[in-house]
Amino acid sequence: MNTRIMVIAAIAAALAIGVLLGRVWTPEQGSGSAEEAGPEILYWVAPMDPNYRRDEPGKSPMGMDLVPVYAGDEAAGSGVVAIDPTLLNNLGVRTALAERGTLPRKIETVGYIGYDEDTLQHVHTRVDGWIEKLATTATGDPVTKGQLLFELYSPTLVNAQQEYLAALASNNAVLRNASRDRLTALGVTDVEIRRLEKERKASQRVRVYAQSDGVIAHLGVREGIFVTPATEVMSVARLDRVWVLAEVFERQSAWVEPGQEATVELDYLPGKRLSGTVDYVYPELDPRTRTLKVRLRFDNEGETLRPNMFARVVIDGSVIDNIVHVPREAIIRGGSSSRVVVDLGDGRFQSREILIGIESGDRVAIRRGLEEGERVVTSAQFLIDSESNIDVALERMESMQ
């Protein structure tokens, strides 16, 4: 009886031990099979230094966790790097899609406000003489049409007046007409000639009046100075219309043409945009700045726009259709080539050389090297690109050994 009880107890104990061992052994076997099914880890590498490699997990000299390099990653293509998701999050990597569509040739540039040269009046004398009385004494002074600008003493004009008075006294029509024409040719106005005919007395000073409203844009004389016909006494400009002279880069010079829409913003008028059109494109570039000058014309009611004000100008050029384009910030510019970092997914990135086209606003056209729908890195791409270049260099060194 006791023997039977002992046998039964031994069998029960053996069953219990077998069940326990089965429960413990089964997960380990499952884990081992999962490890065998997963990719093989070749080595561990520092995230910021591909030359620092170890056979087991640990810390890099910078205190960062080493990341595994799996078998097959080296065959994914030249310039491909794998980055741990935690490190990607810490770096703040952002990406954007390469899109296909229309891209306007938008020109963003600067310019300045200038006088409308069509309204500019240059004042010269037609004889030698002296400025006896200068009515306007400073640049920027306003003038109105018919206002006295200055009085001129000239022996030549005095003699011409006396000759005309003699012709009037002689009753010789031919001589009178010739003398009158000479006064007109010397710049004497009809008002002064009528006064001379009425008073029959030569004036020692001839008055010069403004021909239009405006301001003194340039004053080249002072009272008492001797002037000749080559002397620019002053310039009078109107302010009811002004020019905006914008400077376009040489690479964008083919995009602009008369009639295109444009907007202008000034610090003087924050939040306000002035709409206009391109009035004229100058035929040559500035030899110093290598820019093309473009002219816009604006009405200036209230004279709020003043010459030499700084302006930001946007010109809407023609549109390019069916072109792949990416954000400007995704481009890594080199000395002879440009690159982007392409997100291949699963933490893998590739530095790829591209051929860029036009730049419009914050977008850049891609002519070769990138397809529609691929995702490019727009932040921290310089760190990824540098690591990719190091890996490519190491591959070349290993292949040479």
Explain what the structure shows.
The protein is 25% helix and 40% strand. β20 and β21 form a beta hairpin. With 401 residues, the chain is α+β, with helices and mostly antiparallel strands. The C terminus is likely disordered. The protein is rod-shaped and about 125 Å long. The chain folds into 5 domains: 38 residues; 33 residues, no CATH class; 106 residues, conserved putative lor/sdh protein from methanococcus maripaludis s2 fold (Beta Barrel); 91 residues, Efflux pump adaptor protein, beta barrel domain (Elongation Factor Tu (Ef-tu), domain 3, Beta Barrel), CATH 2.40.30.170; 118 residues, OB fold (Dihydrolipoamide Acetyltransferase, E2P) (Beta Barrel). It has 6 helices and 24 strands. The strands form 4 sheets. It has a 6-stranded antiparallel beta barrel. A 4-stranded antiparallel β-sheet has the order 7-14-12-9, with no helix packed on it.
